[in-house]
Amino acid sequence: YAMGFLAGFKERYPDVDLKVTIGNSDLVEQRLRNFEADVAVMARRGSEDTFVTLACGCEPVVAFVSKDHPWAERETLAFKELEGVQMVRRERGSRTQQVFDETCRKQGVSPHFMLELGSREAVREAVAYGLGVGVVALGEIGHDDRLHPLPFKDVDVANDEYVVCMRTRENSRMIRAFFEIAENSCES
Fold it and tell me: How far is CA 18 from CA 12, 58, 67, 180, in A?
């Protein structure tokens, strides 16, 4: 979502320079609160007293494996098959990991998390090297021929996606413009 919004913003405002930082939902929310970021695209809404939010979509969370993994020839995965499976996990603060962990509790599934890493990129690399199964929002898996996504065939696991800003800054001209572009993109 974010890159599409940025492209639309740059098209409309070519002279405005942008700085993009990437982080988990906790870090992004902290940057908004500290006025280190103007707008965020994230998988968490935040407190309505503090933030203005625009729902912009829902992204399925999928398991993924390396192309050398025994499951790489499969098209889907039953969630319970993750019981006891060696997995690579994201750090605390990752909304994707939180949604996955909640689903594990609800389904009574206990994977073996043998490695915790601080970014989706690090998780992708670990999975590509065969260190375990990972989970990621489908749109974040990228175009990496070393990886194979496995949607869950029996459980819906998903992240809602939002554009977020501090309520105290919602009337900033540039922030309003970004929200307008995002809103038009979400309706398309």
Answer: 13, 25, 36, 17
Q: Kindly state the tokens that stand for 97.
A: 């990991």
Angle separating helix axes 173-187 and 2-12, nearest 10 degrees: 120
Q: What is the pTM of this model?
A: 0.79
Task: Supply the pLDDT for residue 25.
Answer: 82
Distance CA 108, CA 106 (A): 6
3-state SS, 48-98, equals CCCEEEEEEEEEEEEEEEECCCHHHHCCCECHHHHCCCEEEEECCCCHHHH
Q: Cβ distance 80 to 152 under 8 Å? A: no
Q: Over the stretch 37-60, which tens digit does the pLDDT of each residue have?
A: 999 988 877 777 899 999 988 889
